Amino acid sequence: MSERRVAVIGTGYVGLTTGACLASLGHRVVCADADPGKVERLRRAEVDILEPGLPELVQDGLKSDRLAFVGDSPAAVRDADVVFLCLPTPMGAGGAADLAAVEAVAGEIRTELPPGAVVVNKSTVPVGTSERVAALLARPDVAVVSNPEFLREGRAVHDFLHPDRIVVGSADAEAARRVAELYADLAAPLVVTDAASAELTKYAANFFLAMKLSFANNLATLCERFGADIGDVTAGIGHDPRIGAAFLQPGPGWGGSCLPKDTHALLSVCEAAGIDFPLLRATIETNVEHQRRLVERVAAQSAGGDGSLAGVRLALYGLAFKAGTSDLRDSPALAIARQLRERGAELYAYDPALCETRPDLSDLLTLTDDPLAAADGAAACLVLTEWPDFLELDWDAVAARLDGRIVHDFRNFLDHDRLDRAGLVRQSIGSPY
Ligand code: UGA
Fold this sequence. Notes:
With about 425 residues, this protein is of the alpha/beta class. The protein contains 18 helices and 14 strands. A six-stranded parallel beta sheet has the order 3-2-1-4-5-6, with helices on both faces. Pathway: Nucleotide-sugar biosynthesis; UDP-alpha-D-glucuronate biosynthesis; UDP-alpha-D-glucuronate from UDP-alpha-D-glucose: step 1/1.
């Protein structure tokens, strides 16, 4: 594989993983970020996100001089053959993707790009953004390629180095080939296509995953009604390779920095185009309804006669949107906490990933770094993130501190017998067990 000079603009979990992994594949990478404090920390190999393997890769890259960090995106791109835009595209007005960061950087780098450079959109962006970036760059010698990422938070390095596919799309086939060559050492099927197809692939993937989860959570309701077990039903269908077993684990709803934002962005794109996509709407609505149902269940068991949870203390175990991350963005745990709080509940929460970061959630709940303190006098315990630590908890001690007996296992992963021995009643989703 031939070494390329690569610039990566944005060092969030996608940008930093992309930069560090491309350096590990033998390319020369300069990463730029507008936050000077972050750039300083990265130069000392201090990574402030929870991504297994990433600190080591950053350290190796710095040591071998294959990876550098700068605060200035024009400086990063001046020597680059390929420039990756890994910028936030948050949910903007009406659910649409907010492209302000992408557009601002395109403006900043346009005159600095060397002749013949390729600009790659890795950020999740609506169809047509490649053309929009090309128009902003106004550089006929610079091609724009869409190369969406499929990295899961908490597994980003693994997913980058072991991709199940690589998608590159551009109106310029030669530029797409140059981007694909960066990954030549990774054995993965390659989909080379036009920009619109590559951009839509990313939304289609996240929509499909969200749809699977809404399906599983809905199916869980059916299981509860008919006394069936969701784990057995999903195992029963998952063995069919046309369905697949992955992404069918019921939970407190799907969240995180990507699935909610991308499904809403796709919906907004459809609405703007006058296309009705009932399946997409139902996928989003099912998630909201599922969480409402779980809150109802907690209220039905812990509320006073008036249905209010006023003054009822509840212990929340896990706030991160999934295990392996401290990320709270669009966390289902917080969505459920908000609804419980609106009904007057007093919430005490523990999450192993937040003991160090200690985010300020004081308007919603009291965060403790002791699971037993969170359980003190609580009417029930809600397990909202599937942290393996919770399997090892001293459940006898938790039982001694709880007022009530119910543990709502909204991740369906606790050991029923263990809780039973502690005198607790485990209630899972979609299962009598
Ligand atoms: C997601 C996609 O999985 C990645 O492929 C994609 O690249 C990424 O978004 C992105 O667009 O950048 P991520 O946001 O890290 O990755 O989160 P997931 O691991 O997909 O989990 C999403 C939500 O679904 C979480 O709340 C998780 O707890 C929930 N989930 C997942 C379930 O409830 N059940 C499952 O079986 C799987």
